Amino acid sequence: MSMKPLNQQERNNTFIRYILALIVSMLLFGALFFTGSRLPQKELDVLRTQNAEYKSAIDKQAKMLSLMDSIEANLAVLDKAGADASYGETEVSNLLVQMKSNIADTSGINLIYKKIASNYQRAMQDKHMIRDMRKDSEAGTECAKDLEKANKQIMDYQMMLVSMGANVPK
Fold first, then answer.
1. Quick one: which of 123, 126, 148, 166 could link to 161 by a disulfide (CB 3.0–4.6 Å)?
2. What angle do CA 96, 112, 114 make, to 5 degrees?
3. 112-116: which pairs have CB atoms within 8 A and are 24 or more residues apart?
4. Is residue 78 part of a domain?
5. Is 5 strand, coil or helix?
6. pLDDT tens digits for 92-121?
7. Positive or negative CA dihedral for 80, 81, 87, 92?
């Protein structure tokens, strides 16, 4: 008589089920570990692309700000007496063209930059008009001086004529 247990078949079935359950649970934990280790990598990739987009936007905005500083500096030169206005206006116009071409590259604030560019354009036109008005007022002042000089000469001629005995209307 052998000493085999009576429920040997049951024990073997239970052992096989235990091994299968252990394998399934190990596969489940392995799959979870694999997925969990891949998820941060995907998040990192997404964050890297977002970071690149933000850096690109910041670079584009820095370029726009440098263009705006250059435009303001050139507009300030237009106010100074004796400055070459045509060169300054050409520089501002070129910078405005560059600014308008870069507006499409900026993300999200295109309207603001368009309004800023149009304000710079208006400022340049206003400065041109002010310079023309200054020229007109300088020309008017010069004309007034010439008129005063001519009136003085007329008075001198009238005095000479009176001293010569001529009848001069007053």
1. 166
2. 35
3. 113/64, 116/68
4. yes
5. coil
6. 888 888 888 877 755 567 778 888 888 888
7. positive
